[in-house]
Amino acid sequence: xxxxxxxxxxxxxxxxxxxxxxxxxxxxxxxxxxxxxxxxxxxxxxxxxxxxxxxxxxxxxxxxxxxxxxxxxxxxxxxxxxxxxxxxxxxxxxxxxxxxxxxxxxxxxxxxxxxxxxxxxxxxxxxxxxxxxxxxxxxxxxxxxxxxxxxxxxxxxxxxxxxxxxxxxxxxxxxxxxxxxxxxxxxxxxxxxxxxxxxxxxxxxxxxxxxxxxxxxxxxxxxxxxxxxxxxxxxxxxxxxxxxxxxxxxxxxxxxxxxxxxxxxxxxxxxxxxxxxxx
Length: 279
What we know:
Elements: E1 5-9, H1 17-24, E2 30-35, H2 38-51, H3 53-56, H4 60-82, E3 90-94, H5 102-105, E4 114-118, H6 121-134, H7 153-160, H8 166-180, E5 187-190, H9 191-196, H10 198-209, H11 252-255, H12 258-267, H13 269-274
Parallel strand pairs: 1-3, 1-4, 2-3, 4-5
Helix pairs in contact: 2-4
């Protein structure tokens, strides 16, 4: 069966993006992915299309249309293969890059719908620090005693929010989306709202996706996606979800001291203001 519509999820780290996928996957019309690499395939094709002399030597407009068709039909074939043998009509592809590369996707896929979950930044950072503290039996590349890198909480936080690292890269991408002015074409969801008002939040999702609402069971969520986080050098249970959607009290004020919380608020005030978070 061919997929009728392809949707995209591009969220902040530690913002319940895996849980969201598995809630959405309760809808039998949806196939949902773990962190997916199809965007990387498109990047590889784009690099060759841009740099190969075989394309440069031909009519530019003809090649542009041909490349767009290649991307569109290639992604369609990729998704059709994922749902082969099922009656799934829709697919939600998850990758952190879909949001900032929406203008690229738009060159071959009309009006791409991108969902982005966000979370209070202090809770995102506190989650990273808790993972670091929990996994002391394994080497963490963020810490290097020889050059005193990552040897203190302040240093680790500064490293995590650097654009070369996961949290910082996600923040920079959201800021770029806002700078370009297409944030109003995406659906931003606060993970806190998702846990406290799940039905209201999911109705917003279905309205945005222009699909009929499906009644979800937020007290009995099954794990449909799986990821081996050890591939990334991380603990293996980072993407294991809880079966019940509920709000866990924030412990960021215990994990992070006042200095770190103030640093995050001042450095990323635009994020706190845009999504109405308190420090």
